[in-house]
Design a protein that fits this description.
With 370 residues, the chain is of the alpha/beta class. Helix content is 42%, strand content 17%.
């Protein structure tokens, strides 16, 4: 839940917006919590909201949230952080936004569940004088800045890896595309990037959009694809992230598909890295969490202090309002068994011991994880 440690009012421009949405605050308190800055004098520093979209994708709670909190505190020891996870529910995130606006926070870092549906609330924040930083995925409405990775490049990395893994099977190969949630702007970019590489080289036997990125939906859809196409007629699987890869692989194994076709992924989840070591998943896309969270923290702290965001965002993006805002656009990395050690282990994301659980000894040795 959102719990407030302060009651200080913001500038007069916010008063009208606050009075209009105050009635929704009690509802918005239901799904968030507070990471305090200065325990003795909580009103001394800026107040920052950090709103995450779901608990389905492991990275949000295991990587982004702790790293964002740590970096924000390092940059602003007196900051108070209000955090929330919408658990995939648009209405919950709208209530969380309304609550933060009513409390008069100084800035919000937002990973929108549904960018279009959140546009009105982003506009409310802007009218109340609260800058919104769109984190990882581009939100609609008058955002103040953006931090993310090149989404189309993510898809291109996945597409290239899939072609490489299929090798001489590529001419005439048939694949299944397990795309992400179509209301997530990133999912659209991933798909566009992948298709720019795959079109004309493979046949797409079945294609699915997966609402809320649910692995169980990917499992069900993959089972349907196997029934429709046949066990031996799937040479590759484009899975937009590691959760969808897990659901797809589970269905392939349940239907006794052997050997497994190459399967892509994204987010470098620990379970996915282990699948890659075992040979069940071919690759994942690693979007280095520390640079992204560092940039997100720097931008939201600067916004909360009323500083010029151009000093943080050296890039630019054009929003759906037609406005160009400062951005930080980072480069994703393709990870296969061959470079786990030089990427994820080297960056300190996981240790060899975390990856190489009992039973993976021989596979880890083959991958150079010793």
């Amino acid at each position: 839940m959102l719990t407030s440690e302060f009651s200080r009012s913001k500038a007069p421009i916010r008063n009208a917006a606050l009075s209009m949405i105050a009635i929704s605050v009690a509802v918005g308190l239901a799904a968030c919590g507070t990471d305090g800055g200065s325990a003795s004098e909580p009103d001394d520093g800026p107040r920052i909201g950090v709103l995450l979209p779901d608990a389905t994708t492991a990275r949000w709670e295991t990587q982004d949230r702790p790293l964002l909190n740590k970096r924000i505190r390092a940059l602003c020891p007196t900051c108070t952080i209000e955090h929330g996870n919408a658990k995939g529910d648009v209405a919950t995130q709208q209530q969380q936004m309304n609550s933060l606006i009513a409390q008069g926070v100084d800035a919000i870092l937002l990973v929108a569940v549904d960018s279009r549906s959140l546009a009105t609330t982003v506009k409310k924040a802007d009218e109340a004088g609260i800058p919104v930083i769109a984190y990882d995925r581009l939100a609609e409405g008058p955002i103040a800045g953006h931090v993310s990775f090149d989404g189309q490049e993510v898809g291109r990395l996945q597409g290239r890896a899939l072609l490489k893994a299929m090798g001489d099977k590529v001419p005439g190969a048939q694949i299944v595309m397990m795309n992400g949630d179509p209301i997530d702007p990133n999912a659209v970019l991933f798909k566009e990037g992948a298709l720019s590489v795959l079109t004309g080289k493979v046949k797409i036997g079945k294609e699915y959009d997966t609402l809320q990125w649910r692995p169980e939906s990917a499992n069900m859809n993959m089972s349907g694809a196997i029934s429709a196409l046949g066990v031996d007629n799937i040479q590759g699987v484009y899975a937009a992230n590691d959760g969808l890869a897990a659901g797809s692989i589970s269905a392939l194994k349940a239907n006794k598909v052997d050997p497994l076709p190459p399967v892509t992924g994204q987010d470098a989840e620990l379970s996915a890295v282990r699948r890659i070591v075992r040979g069940e998943q071919y690759m994942t896309v690693y979007k280095p969490f520390r640079p992204e969270t560092a940039a997100g923290a720097a931008m939201v702290v600067a916004a909360a202090r009323g500083e010029n965001l151009d000093r943080v965002g050296k890039d630019e993006v054009r929003t759906n309002t037609g406005k160009t805002v400062p951005a930080v656009m980072l480069t994703p990395v393709s990870v296969t068994a061959d470079n786990i050690k030089s990427t994820l282990v080297k960056d300190g994301v996981y240790t060899v011991r975390q990856i190489c659980t009992p039973g993976l000894g021989a596979a880890c040795a083959r991958a150079g994880l010793t």
